[in-house]
Amino acid sequence: MLAIIRFILVLISCILICLLGTIYSLIRFKNPNNVGQISRWFGRLNRLFGLKVEYRFNPKSPTTPAIYISNHQNNYDMVTLAYMVQPRTVSVGKRSLMWIPLFGILFWASGNIFLDRNNRKKAQHTMNELANRINKDQLSLWIFPEGTRSRGRGLLPFKTGAFHAAIAAGVPIVPVICSTTHNQVKWNRWDNGYAICEELDPIDVSGYTRDNVRELAAYCRDVMEKRIAELDAEVAAKEKMKKD
After folding, report:
1. Does the UniProt entry include the keyword Lipid biosynthesis (predicted)?
2. How buried is 4 (Cβ within 10 angstroms: 0-12 exposed, 13-18 middle, 19+ buried)?
């Protein structure tokens, strides 16, 4: 019964956010602050899923443009990590998102950027254009460098597009991570425990070039993987204390 009630509430909430967000975005068409505002609306839905999410923003977060990279686990990222999106930040997503009912038009109207991942040459050109836009429009980008949801497989290998764009634009990379949520949410369970989302220290890219971009990607992945493991241990300790 709880699962049915939860599903109805989530469905209604998502439809309302998509409709109101689309109207809001069409009034302020592709305003760079649209995405952050609407993402926070989605981020507030975590309690509907029985999740208690702790958000840790970093005082060292840059006030100038940056590229935010995050682990991409599952659909619940929309109610965990979404709340971490900073002002003047837009996300980069695959073109197929456009065809998701209601969400597709919201993604487009709010100012996010589509990337054709099936066309490598075109995708690289898009990343070069993004590097120009970052400084010209004072935009930050939110990118999932894994390119797809990991679904319990751990942190997947990183694609290099985000890192090429950061080097070309000369902006820092800011990792944003969430503790593991794979198989954590049970729709028939009232309390689905804790999750922690954390913004890590900015990573300077000035010492990297296109020739060693893979080293940068590997370094960022290593930093994120280690911290995710630490957050998972912290969440486990909190769950143990709750049971005791």
Report:
1. yes
2. exposed
* Residues 154 and 145: beta-carbon distance below 8 Å: no
| Helices 161-169 and 213-243, axial angle in degrees (round to 10) | 110
Answer positive or negative: Cα dihedral of 232, 163, 135, 94.
negative
Between CA 56 and CA 199 the distance in angstroms is 6
178 contacts 80 by C-beta, under 8 angstroms: yes
Contact 211, 178 (CB under 8 A): no
d(CA 144, CA 153): 15
Q: Which residues contact 116 (CB under 8 A, 6 or more apart)?
A: 94, 95, 122, 123, 126
Q: In the structure encoding, which two tokens stand for residue 98, read together?
A: 């456009």
Domain boundaries, position 147: 1-242
Mean pLDDT (whole number) for 60-80: 93
Q: Which two tokens stand for residue 161?
A: 């597009």
Tens of pLDDT, residue by residue over 208-235, are 998 999 999 999 999 999 999 999 999 9
Under the banding of pLDDT at 50, 70 and 90, the label for residue 197 is very high
SS3 content of the chain, % helix, strand, coil (to 5): 50, 15, 35
Residue with tokens 């969400």: 103
Q: Of 142, 189, 156, 132, nearest to 39 (Cα)? A: 142
Structural tokens at position 35 = 């995405």
Domain count, the chain: 1
CATH number where 82 lies: 3.40.1130
pLDDT over 60 at 20, yes or no = yes
